[in-house]
């Protein structure tokens, strides 16, 4: 066992867990932060998508020893705080379009969508169909078209 | 205090008082005010129309009495136990004896209650009832039957509550019941004085249980039902606050996984390194169970490491050595012969045969359950669509009385038929007892396609005879690996045997369900559709519909070929032979919206198809792009292939409770249909399925999604809802297949069309799960 310190949703945390435990399980099983979901454990389904220092990543594929005290992890629970509001504009777009069905993939979808919009806006572009085609998050309920609409809508609000 | 309801539905605004009552017009129903300190009511629904005594040669059985009728009627004798409580905060509570898996029934039920009680949807709390064995046949979520079977019981219970609240208000306000107006849970008397439901709840309660007769308002008076509403759990879903089974914090229930055999349904013989694995970091317990070797640890990550470290000797299991081809051979040998009636000379015969591969019904939330088993009682939490059956099976596995097994139903992260079975709940209970500790069991993703439930492989042979522009006969022989119905539907069928239409008596269980679900909506002369099954020991189940996606795909592709033989346009042919006006209306609508017949480039085409089931009808038009530059587009670790570029679906689902939710279900149905036609299947090789994750099992992804999607909800004068959850799939897979055939000039006969190509390197079978990567920080964006 070893101690690891990093920041989650604006707060510094220290956990006592083996070096190689993947961050997803540190978040879920140790810290009780359950917004990021397990769907594959091999960085394919993207249900656990969260942010590290503002960029999308998948904690199922990062060992806890690879994050440090300066790293800021943001999960869906901390997303509204990044804009200082009750809800992030992407979450509002999601509600407006009634995107969720079962809801299991939705935290990951929203975190991926926010990062995609940041990336596209940083390039001075608008979201294109190709950008939307490139979203890898699985939605087994198949609410993909509403996701596409909400990403565009959320981008307009961001 | 009296509980006699007022007969005239005071305070209920009528949208169109001049129109004749429609739907459930002035039918009288019995309800109860239940003894208690806050208002609790219950509904009893009786007087359902009996099934037809005899079935004429046409229409088909399912048109007169379908699977939904079976479920609805078998639920009736216990529907009096459907209860609604209005508490002293003015909130209405209803524990629905069904499971929410994303299909939107908690939203729809909230809307029905809010409408009947003239209160805000936000003030209705619908939760999922735990297993209630006294409900017998009234706690199974399946067959797209929830709204059909629950709509009237919920309305009756709410109407009884409304009556009791208004009576209490009349007493409190010194007014007649008929003079009161209700809006937003506030009752107003003619003099302007008001009482809230919160204030009236106690006074409306009864010290004795009292029977009450109520009448339901005509369906034309709905205010909430029929309007688009966002899901009641949407905010929780988008904030990550929605709790699924694995998010629950049950004291001591540590992460638990199972090291599973390399072949399907194999079993452990011995473990070489039990003590070494028990000593691994975080590991607390390792036990051998029937399904494999269970490990419990501080984190799921450490469970994965332990599963990978186990050295187990396995027994092979029932399908050792089997492969796609050997199973197909078994099916072919079991295909029932055609029996074309005597037809005139010069009759043309058309024969086709289609094959449908194994498909995984796994949801994104893998199989999971929490179990806390003690010496004399057990508590389980899981997503269960048939919790009474699960409770019975858990009790049996543990040797406990049913009453000592509490089974809590948790909202599911998808189901698609997967959660009809209590596989994970039974396994978790078994492991918890073996370890003597609470466990939070999760299947690894790799376990799902390899050991989980699949939609069985099937073949469909069709033969038709044509003469002078008419179809004289249409014969279908559907042959399938056995579908498991042990989730309770089989028991219903047996119990309801006396009520079923004549002609079903001699059929076995699966054949009966096949007959109860199949409607060929065309006038094709003598029609016979028969099912035969082969039992080979696979783990099967329904998968967002039972037989229909395969049957409809075969039928509609075949019908396109009939049209071609008769030199007719696919749309014109269907309109000429369809006998259902509802199906025709849907078909005309998608043809109009989708501009059927518009000029398209070579290598692209439209396809059109229909389906009729669940007291409703669907039609789908798709456009597909099969040009090389599209088919060959590259996406990492993905299957691209032909792209459906446009989908238009029209649905007549009878009375629509929530059009926004219905559209969502159609969108999902189209996504499923595209996957079934083009990309998603399991490959059986040497006794195991090759697929192990979403980079092997190709469910529709964003790069496969039609950029243009439209759903048209058809107007309906039906008085009851039909089915929605599964209704969108069959016509979608069929239309996609038809479009593919037209775009490529080749009629596909094996589905999905890409099954012949294994486009991935299979992950290891020993160890049975892949390691978690460590390079996640190299892929940020």
UniProtKB/TrEMBL annotation, chain A:
Please name the InterPro entries in this protein's record. 2Fe-2S-bd (IPR002888), 2Fe-2S-bd_dom_sf (IPR036884), 2Fe-2S_ferredoxin-like_sf (IPR036010), 2Fe-2S_ferredoxin-type (IPR001041), Aldehyde_Oxdr_Iron-Sulfur (IPR052914), Beta-grasp_dom_sf (IPR012675)
Question: Residue ranges of the 2Fe-2S ferredoxin-type domain?
Answer: 2-79
Identify the Pfam families for this entry: Fer2, Fer2_2
Specify the superkingdom: Bacteria
The record lists the membrane-crossing segments as: none
Q: Name one GO molecular function term.
A: oxidoreductase activity, acting on the aldehyde or oxo group of donors
Q: List, alphabetically, the PANTHER family matched.
A: OXIDOREDUCTASE WITH IRON-SULFUR SUBUNIT, OXIDOREDUCTASE, IRON-SULPHUR BINDING SUBUNIT-RELATED-RELATED
Q: What is the protein name given in its UniProt record?
A: Isoquinoline 1-oxidoreductase subunit alpha
């Amino acid at each position: 066992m070893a101690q690891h310190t990093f920041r989650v949703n604006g707060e510094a945390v220290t956990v006592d867990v083996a070096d190689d435990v993947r961050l997803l399980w540190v978040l879920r099983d140790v810290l009780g932060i359950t917004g990021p979901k397990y769907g594959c454990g091999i960085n394919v389904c993207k249900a656990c998508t969260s942010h590290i220092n503002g960029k999308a990543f998948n904690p199922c594929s990062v060992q806890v020893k690879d994050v440090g005290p300066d790293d800021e992890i943001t999960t869906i629970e901390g997303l509204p705080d990044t804009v200082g509001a009750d809800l992030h504009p992407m979450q509002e777009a999601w509600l407006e379009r009634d995107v969720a069905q079962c809801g299991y993939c939705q935290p990951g979808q929203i975190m991926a969508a926010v990062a995609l919009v940041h990336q596209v806006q940083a390039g001075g572009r608008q979201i294109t169909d190709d950008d939307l085609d490139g979203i890898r998050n699985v939605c087994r309920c198949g609410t993909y078209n509403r996701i596409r609409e909400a990403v565009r809508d959320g981008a307009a609000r961001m | 205090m009296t509980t006699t309801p007022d007969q005239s539905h005071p305070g209920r605004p009528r949208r169109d008082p001049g129109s004749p009552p429609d739907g459930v017009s002035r039918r009288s129903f019995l309800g109860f005010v239940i003894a208690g300190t806050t208002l609790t009511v219950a509904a009893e629904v009786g007087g359902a129309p009996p099934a037809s005594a005899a079935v004429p040669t046409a229409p088909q059985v399912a048109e007169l009495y379908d699977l939904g009728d079976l479920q609805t009627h078998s639920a009736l004798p216990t529907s009096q136990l459907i209860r609604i409580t209005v508490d002293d905060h003015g909130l209405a509570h209803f524990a629905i004896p069904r499971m929410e898996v994303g299909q939107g029934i908690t939203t729809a039920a909230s809307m029905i209650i809010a409408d009947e009680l003239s209160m805000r949807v936000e003030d209705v709390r619908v939760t999922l009832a735990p297993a209630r064995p006294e409900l017998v046949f009234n706690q199974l979520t399946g067959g797209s039957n929830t709204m059909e079977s629950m709509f009237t019981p919920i309305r009756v219970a709410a109407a009884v509550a409304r009556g009791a609240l208004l009576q209490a208000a009349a007493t409190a306000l010194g007014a007649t019941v008929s003079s009161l107006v209700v809006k937003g849970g506030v009752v107003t008397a003619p003099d302007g004085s008001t009482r809230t439901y919160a204030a009236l709840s106690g006074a409306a309660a009864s010290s004795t249980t009292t029977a009450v007769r109520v009448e339901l308002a005509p369906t034309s008076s709905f205010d909430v039902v029929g309007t688009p509403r966002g899901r009641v759990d949407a905010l929780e879903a988008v904030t990550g606050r929605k709790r699924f089974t694995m998010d629950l914090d049950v004291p001591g229930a540590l992460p638990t996984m199972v090291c599973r055999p390399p072949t399907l349904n194999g079993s452990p013989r011995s473990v070489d390194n039990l003590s070494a694995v028990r000593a691994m970091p975080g590991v607390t317990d390792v036990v051998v169970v029937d399904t494999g070797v269970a490990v419990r640890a501080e984190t799921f990550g450490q469970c994965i490491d332990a599963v990978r470290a186990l050295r187990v000797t396995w027994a092979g299991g029932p399908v050792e050595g089997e492969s796609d081809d050997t199973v197909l051979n078994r099916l072919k040998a079991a295909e029932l012969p055609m029996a074309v009636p005597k037809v005139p000379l010069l009759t043309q015969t058309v024969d086709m045969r289609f094959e449908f591969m194994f498909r995984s019904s796994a949801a994104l939330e893998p199989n999971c359950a929490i179990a806390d088993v003690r010496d004399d009682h057990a508590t389980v939490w899981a997503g269960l669509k048939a919790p009474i059956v699960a409770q019975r099976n858990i009790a049996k596995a543990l040797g406990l009385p049913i009453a000592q097994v509490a089974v809590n139903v948790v909202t599911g992260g998808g189901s698609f038929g997967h959660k009809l079975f209590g596989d994970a709940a039974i396994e978790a209970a078994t492991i918890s007892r073996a370890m003597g500790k609470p466990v939070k069991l999760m299947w690894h993703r790799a376990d799902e396609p390899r050991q989980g439930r699949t939609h069985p492989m099937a073949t469909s042979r069709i033969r038709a005879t044509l003469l002078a522009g008419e179809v004289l006969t249409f014969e279908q022989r559907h042959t399938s690996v056995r579908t498991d119905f042990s989730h309770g539907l089989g028991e219903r069928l047996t119990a309801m045997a006396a009520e079923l239409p004549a002609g079903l008596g001699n059929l076995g269980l699966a054949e009966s369900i096949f007959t109860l679900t199949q409607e060929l909506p065309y006038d094709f002369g003598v029609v016979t559709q028969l099912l035969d099954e082969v039992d080979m020991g696979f783990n099967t189940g329904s998968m967002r519909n039972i037989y229909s996606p395969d049957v409809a795909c075969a039928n509609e592709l075949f019908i396109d070929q009939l049209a071609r033989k008769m030199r007719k346009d696919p749309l014109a042919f269907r309109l000429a032979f369809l006998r259902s006006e509802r199906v025709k209306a849907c078909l005309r609508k998608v043809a109009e919206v989708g501009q059927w017949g518009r000029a398209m480039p070579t290598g692209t085409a439209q396809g059109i198809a229909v389906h009729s089931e669940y007291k409703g009808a669907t039609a789908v038009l798709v456009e597909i792009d099969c040009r090389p530059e599209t088919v060959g587009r590259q996406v990492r670790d993905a299957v691209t292939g032909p792209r459906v570029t446009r989908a238009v679906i029209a649905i007549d689902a009878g009375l629509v409770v929530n059009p926004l939710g219905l559209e969502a279900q159609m969108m999902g149905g189209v996504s499923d249909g595209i996957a079934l036609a083009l990309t998603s299947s399991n490959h059986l090789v040497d006794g195991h399925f090759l697929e192990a994750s979403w980079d092997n099992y190709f469910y529709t992804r964003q790069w496969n999604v039609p950029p243009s999607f439209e759903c048209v909800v058809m107007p309906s004068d039906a008085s009851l809802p039909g089915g929605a959850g599964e209704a969108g799939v069959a016509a979608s897979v069929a239309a996609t297949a038809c479009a593919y055939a037209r775009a490529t000039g080749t009629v596909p006969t094996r589905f999905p069309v890409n099954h012949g190509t294994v486009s991935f390197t299979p992950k290891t079978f020993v160890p049975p799960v892949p390691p978690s990567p460590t390079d996640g920080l190299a892929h940020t964006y």
